[in-house]
Design a protein that fits this description.
- By secondary structure, the chain is α+β, with helices and mostly antiparallel strands.
- The chain has one domain (2-142): Gcn5-related N-acetyltransferase (GNAT) (Aminopeptidase, 3-Layer(aba) Sandwich), CATH 3.40.630.30.
- It is built from four helices and seven strands; from the N terminus they run βαβββαβαββα.
- It has helices at residues 7-18, 74-87, 102-111, 139-142; strands at 2-4, 27-32, 46-56, 59-66, 92-98, 114-119, 128-134.
- The protein has a seven-stranded mixed β-sheet, sandwiched between helices.
- Strand 6 and strand 7 (128-134) form a beta hairpin.
- It is globular and about 45 Å long.
- 24% of the residues are buried.
- The mean pLDDT is 93.
């Protein structure tokens, strides 16, 4: 698996897939399947992507895109939570999900996020659901 933190590529991917705008605190990682040559990574080559922004106090927003669920593994999930909680010393991570995106809501809930607020008509197509994961509740950190 190829792993890249190139800020331009990470931002371009999340802008393309989720419409996220650039911010000075935007950072993340892209995981792509190994390539037989040195050709550049294309948007459709990305299997799993995780990004963070809106670092305010000890909280940040986490964004994920899983294009190839069969390639997602525990190491990626652990790294996704170690970064905000261990490296950045956050106490809470937020995920903002449109209420019509049932796949993302199911995925985030299975990871351990809990709904804390709902903003009527705040999403792209429906309500904007604010999910939260507290460091104390993150079972992924206990696996390490």
């Amino acid at each position: 698996m190829i792993e890249t933190c190139d800020p331009n590529l990470v931002h371009a991917f999340f802008n393309n897939r989720l419409g996220l705008h650039h911010s000075a605190d935007f950072r993340g990682v892209l995981y792509a399947q190994d390539r037989p040559d040195d050709s550049p990574i294309m948007m459709d080559d990305i299997a799993v992507a995780v990004a963070y922004n809106a670092f305010i106090g000890r909280t940040c927003c986490m964004h994920t895109v899983v294009q190839r669920p069969e390639l997602l593994n525990r190491r990626m999930v652990l790294a996704a939570f170690q970064y905000p909680f261990t490296v950045c010393n956050c106490e809470a991570v937020l995920a903002l999900v449109d209420s019509t995106n049932t796949a993302a809501l199911d995925f985030d809930t299975r990871l351990g996020f809990k709904e804390i607020a709902r903003i009527p008509n705040g999403g792209g197509d429906g309500d904007l659901i604010v999910l939260q994961m507290l460091r104390a509740d993150c079972r992924w950190l206990r696996l390490h």
